[in-house]
Amino acid sequence: MKLFLFALVLALCATVNAQTYPTKTVCIVVPFVPGGNVDINARAVATDKRAPLLPDVPTLAEQGLKGFDATTTTGLLAPAATPQDIIERVHGAIVKIAAPQTIRDRFAALGATTLGNSPAAFAEYIKQDYAKWQKVVQAANISAN
């Protein structure tokens, strides 16, 4: 679904017609691009900052699509009624697990960046991301069946 929304955002920013193509996420091929293991000529990344694995590949925003950002985020969520002390304990454990350089290097090799922000900061990010994609859904007149 996010790939479809990504194409719509691209269309809205570039004022072109959107077409989507069945594909796997770019994260699957990114680790192979720097080593020349696949026949891909990367033209842009869809994140707000250049990808560490592809430092010479500009962002879409750098190429004129100002405000374009289709960053994929992964995080751990808990039910709304989860007590704060449990959230803090789980957060602390995850921070410890992700702290070793070997773990961070493994994520980086997969094209991922570890942030380790607070539960409150992640909740705010989700709220802002939801609002951004809600505008895309409304602009494209998408509704649930």
Q: How far do the termini sit from each other?
A: 14 Å
Q: What is the CATH topology?
A: D-Maltodextrin-Binding Protein, domain 2
Radius of gyration over alpha carbons?
A: 18 Å
Strand content: under 5%
- Helix/strand class: mainly alpha
| Unreliable spans | 1-26
Mean pLDDT across every amino acid position: 75
Shape assignment: flat
Number of strands: 0
CATH class wording: Alpha Beta
- Enumerate how many helices there are, as a single number: 4
What does this molecule look like?
With about 140 residues, this protein is mainly α. The protein has a single domain (about 1-140), classed as D-Maltodextrin-Binding Protein, domain 2. It is built from four helices and no strands. It starts with a helix and ends in a 6-residue tail after the last helix.
How do the helices and strands line up, and which of them pair or pack?
Blueprint: H1 2-14, H2 84-98, H3 101-109, H4 119-139
Helix pairs in contact: 1-4
List keywords for this structure.
145 residues; mainly alpha; D-Maltodextrin-Binding Protein, domain 2; 4 helices; disordered N terminus
Structure summarized in a few sentences:
By secondary structure, this protein is mainly alpha-helical.
